[in-house]
Structure formats: structure tokens, C-alpha cells
Design goal:
Layout: H1 3-40, H2 44-62, H3 69-78, H4 86-110, H5 112-119, H6 129-143, H7 146-162, H8 166-171, H9 173-191, H10 201-229, H11 246-274, H12 280-312, H13 319-346, H14 348-356, H15 363-378, H16 380-395, H17 400-424, H18 426-451, H19 457-489, H20 494-519, H21 522-536
């Protein structure tokens, strides 16, 4: 077996582990959102939670997310160091980061009212705005300690990644979802149909916020147990900030954090405009989970195994193989995200109705969420493609370039939000984000071409263009199938909707699979064969 085949086999094995664990986690995340939708619909309670959760969510994604800057910095440094050096380094970074984030937590508690005013100035102009604001302030103060937990979770993710422990990385968000579902279940048993009533809005918000905090704590605690058992450090204060490796981590972590933070400023810009549209924050949330569920699974499968590989190929002598790995990441992204996005565009209405339309979630809510989902589906490829390219720069020890691009794109996002906000409403905010991601991908590719002494543009672009065309054909086939089924079966009833969605989706996937197989892309064929060896071997 050649070296390349062994590497691909290993990559396929890791991808299989990540796929199963992430699938389990994402399914429970979707069930969590279904529970929230059934309890509160797309109304004031969920709007308040979205505004209050914006900063904790920002910190969880920015600091604690898999493939986030803390995770990427730890992996990029530990992958190049001996195992015995890991524990002291991890403990020192944890001490430094944890101390700084305690100050952030205190700041959030004290200035919660000011922060909500800054995040959602439009609440003064919408119905129930005062109630939403008061609820959001309470929730933000409850969730403030997530600031500390986010940093510690991100460091732990990176540490476990370097030890090839992928199960916990992909499965840990499951614990947060379970805690929140249990909290909502208890509240529903106590209040029954009154759960979404205005007089219980603050209580409902406290359950959402408290469940979110408890879930983050449990996620960190389980991670710490696994980290200690692997000999990769414990929750121990260590103040030797001058030890080798600390500066290497901070050199990547600091600019990467600012870079990812710039992306969250774009989210703030979106929420700023969304605060002027009734129910828009809730609609954006419910649409986002439908996108992030499959995207998160594919993202972990592609990015988690490739990031350590990118780091080991960072030297100029290894750049030819690095380019092959980048191509693999981009084509796998296109192979998964392009058809998925096409199906979301044409099947948005039945997807939303099947997933959410029950309890307090009405048909009008479905119309709002499905319109946002169409805009999200258009941009799925560039969303994940940008992440692949950013990780290449991190692996090269360059966090400044993605940061600079992110700063430039803040201006583009604000401009596009302003342009699309009035004519398109909430979907326009998503279209603005898609435009920003397109600009980011083009800029990153151009700079990477200069950095790696040229990229094989033709070899990369032709397969991606072919997969784009295949996705459009698949989407058209799926849409036609749905129209025929609705004509004969109608559109009422959950089972009817589920049947139509399943058949139309399978037709689209089948058409795309036939075209993709006809293209005979070598890296995809190799990847699929290794997955078959892992899961079908006797």
C-alpha cells in the first residue's frame, strides 16, 4: 500500500468516526430546536433568547468551536511538538485564557442592559419590544459564565484533536441539547398550553438561558475528564507564561481570534437590522439550524482530519502535496454542499413544515423560515469553502491574512445588508452574508496562489463547475418531482409532506450521484472506497 493510500485510508477512518458522532449530536440539536419551536413558536420569547444568546454564542463559536481559532491554534502547535510537552503547555494556556475570560464574564453581567440596547436598537419600534428587551437582559446575565467555559472548551477541543480523539469533539454538543430539552420538558409539564403565554415569558427565557449554561458546563466537564485520562493536562493553574510553545500558540490564536471575531461583527450587523423586523431573529435562528445540521456534519468530516495534515505539510518542500490536500478539501466541499444547497432551495417549504410546523409554530412562521432557508442554501458551498482555505493559512502559521480579509469584509457586509435589507427583508440579510463569503473565497484563493507559488486553477475549477451544473440539474429534477407529487397528493398532513419531501429529495440526490459518478473525480473515488473498506469490511 502506498503512502498516499495509507493516508487516505486513515483519513477515511477518521471521517467515519466524525460522521457518526456528529450526526448523533446534530440530530439532538435539531430536536432541541423543534422543542423550542413547539413551545414558543417564532415569537417574543425566542426573539429575546436570540438577542441574549448572541454574545455567549459568539464566544462559543469564536473560542469554543471545533475548527475555531483556539482549536486551530492548539492543533497547529501541538501537532509539531512532543507529547510530554503538551500537558504543561495546555495548562498554561488554560490559566492565561481563563483569567482573561473571567473579566469578560463580569463585564457581561454588569453591562447587560447596555449590550442589549447595542445589539437590538430596533426593539423600541416593534410590538412587545419592551418585554423582549427585559427578557433578553435577564437571559444574558444568566448565560454570562459561558464566556469562561467557551475558552476552556476550545482549548480542550484542540488538545483532544491532536491526540486523535475525535468522538468527544463531535459528540460533546449533544450534552447541551439534552440538558435544554429536559428543561423545556419540565417547564411544559408544569405550564401545559400556557408555556408560551406572555405572563410566563421571563420564566421561559430563564429556562432557555439556564439550560444553555448548564449544557456548556457539562460539555466542558466531560471534556476535562477525557483530557486528563489522555495525559494532556488537568484543570490546574500554571503561570509559566514564558515556557516554550506559549508564544507559538498566542501568535496564531490572537490574530485568528480577531479574524473570527470580525465574522461575528457581521452577525451583529445582521441582528441590528433584524431587530427592526418582527420575528426575524427567530426566523433566522430556525433557518440557521436547518443549514448548520448538515453543514456541521460535513464540516467536521472535512476540516477535522485535514487541519493536522495541513499543519504537517506547511514546509515548502511539502507544498505539492499540500496543494493536493487543499484540492481534496475543496472538491469534497463542492460534492456535498452544492447538491445540499440546491435541494434546500427547491424543497425549503416542505422541509420547514415537516421539521417545525406543530405546537406554537404556525404556517405563517413556516413561510418566513422557508424564505430565509432559500437564501441560505445558495451560499452553502462558499461558507464551508472559506473555512477550508482559512485553515490552510492557520496551518502555515499565518493568522493575520484571514484577519485582514475579515476586516475588509465587515464593510462589504454592512453595505450589502443596507442594500438587501429593504427589498428582501430577513432573507436579504442572509444574501448579504453569502456575498461576503464569495468575496472572502476569491481573496483567499488569490493570496494562497501567491503564497504557494501558484495554484492549479484549471484542475480545481473545472470539477467544481461541473459539480455546480450537476447540482442545478438535480435541483430541477427534485422540484419537478415535488410539483407532480403535490398535484396528485395535495400538501396537507405530516405524513403526506414527509413522503413528498423524501421522494423529491431522493430523486435529486440520485440524479446528482449519477452525474458525479460520470465525472470520475479521483479523490472522491478514493475517499468513498476507503469508507467502504472501513464500514463494509467483515
Amino acid at each position: 500500500m502506498t503512502k498516499e493510500q495509507k493516508a487516505s485510508r486513515s483519513l477515511a477512518g477518521i471521517a467515519g468516526i466524525i460522521a457518526v458522532a456528529t450526526l448523533i449530536s446534530k440530530v439532538f440539536g435539531l430536536v432541541r430546536e423543534q422543542a423550542i419551536a413547539a413551545a414558543f413558536g417564532a415569537g417574543a420569547i425566542v426573539d429575546a433568547y436570540n438577542f441574549a444568546y448572541m454574545i455567549p454564542s459568539f464566544l462559543l463559536i469564536l473560542l469554543g468551536g471545533v475548527n475555531g481559532p483556539f482549536h486551530s491554534a492548539i492543533v497547529s502547535v501541538l501537532a509539531k511538538r512532543k507529547q510530554e510537552e503538551a500537558a504543561p503547555l495546555v495548562e498554561t494556556i488554560t490559566t492565561l485564557v481563563g483569567g482573561l475570560l473571567v473579566l469578560v464574564t463580569i463585564f457581561l453581567v454588569i453591562f447587560a442592559p447596555n449590550l442589549i440596547d447595542l445589539i437590538a436598537p430596533g426593539l423600541d419600534t416593534v410590538p412587545n419590544g419592551a418585554l423582549i428587551k427585559a427578557n433578553a437582559i435577564v437571559q444574558l446575565r444568566i448565560m454570562a459564565p459561558i464566556a469562561v467555559l467557551a475558552g476552556l472548551i476550545g482549548i480542550g477541543f484542540g488538545t483532544l484533536n491532536t491526540a486523535n480523539q475525535y468522538w468527544l469533539l463531535s459528540l460533546s454538543p449533544l450534552f447541551s441539547s439534552i440538558i435544554l430539552i429536559i428543561g423545556l420538558g419540565i417547564l411544559a409539564l408544569q405550564l401545559g398550553n400556557k408555556i408560551s403565554s406572555p405572563q410566563y415569558a421571563i420564566l421561559g427565557g430563564m429556562v432557555l438561558a439556564g439550560g444553555t449554561l448548564a449544557g456548556a458546563f457539562l460539555q466542558w466537564l466531560i471534556q476535562q475528564i477525557a483530557q486528563a485520562r489522555a495525559g494532556l493536562g488537568t484543570f490546574r493553574l500554571r503561570f509559566n507564561f514564558k515556557q516554550p510553545g506559549v508564544n507559538d500558540v498566542l501568535k496564531i490564536m490572537a490574530p485568528a481570534t480577531f479574524s473570527s471575531g470580525m465574522l461575528q461583527i457581521n452577525l451583529y450587523t445582521d441582528m441590528y437590522f433584524a431587530s427592526f423586523i418582527p420575528s426575524a431573529p427567530s426566523g433566522l435562528r430556525y433557518s440557521n439550524i436547518l443549514v448548520q445540521t448538515p453543514l456541521g456534519i460535513i464540516s467536521n468530516i472535512i476540516l477535522l482530519p485535514l487541519l493536522p495534515v495541513f499543519a504537517r505539510l506547511a514546509e515548502p518542500d511539502n507544498w505539492p502535496e499540500l496543494k493536493l490536500r487543499i484540492r481534496q478539501g475543496l472538491i469534497l466541499t463542492a460534492l456535498t454542499m452544492l447538491p445540499m444547497g440546491a435541494l434546500m432551495v427547491v424543497l425549503s417549504v416542505p422541509i420547514v413544515r415537516v421539521v417545525y410546523e406543530r405546537g406554537a409554530f404556525t404556517q405563517a412562521d413556516s413561510g418566513l423560515v422557508s424564505s430565509i432557508l432559500v437564501a441560505s442554501g445558495i451560499g452553502m458551498f462558499v461558507y464551508l469553502g472559506r473555512d477550508v482555505l482559512v485553515r490552510v493559512f492557520y496551518a502555515l502559521g499565518d493568522g493575520e491574512t484571514p484577519f485582514r480579509i475579515s476586516v475588509i469584509n465587515i464593510l462589504f457586509n454592512a453595505l450589502l445588508d443596507w442594500i438587501f435589507f429593504k427589498p428582501f427583508g430577513a432573507p436579504g440579510l442572509v444574501l448579504a452574508t453569502v456575498g461576503v463569503n464569495c468575496i472572502s473565497v476569491l481573496m483567499l484563493l488569490w493570496l494562497l496562489d501567491r503564497r504557494l507559488n501558484g495554484l492549479p486553477w484549471r484542475e480545481w475549477s473545472l470539477p467544481i463547475l461541473g459539480l455546480t451544473a450537476a447540482s442545478m440539474v438535480a435541483g430541477a429534477a427534485s422540484y419537478g418531482t415535488l410539483e407532480v407529487l403535490q398535484k396528485f397528493l395535495g400538501t396537507n398532513g405530516l405524513l403526506i409532506q414527509l413522503l413528498q419531501l423524501s421522494i423529491a429529495g431522493l430523486v435529486g440526490i440520485g440524479v446528482f450521484a449519477v452525474i458525479a459518478a460520470w465525472m470520475k473525480l479521483p479523490e472522491v473515488n478514493l475517499f468513498v472506497s476507503r469508507l467502504r473498506q472501513r464500514f463494509l469490511k467483515k
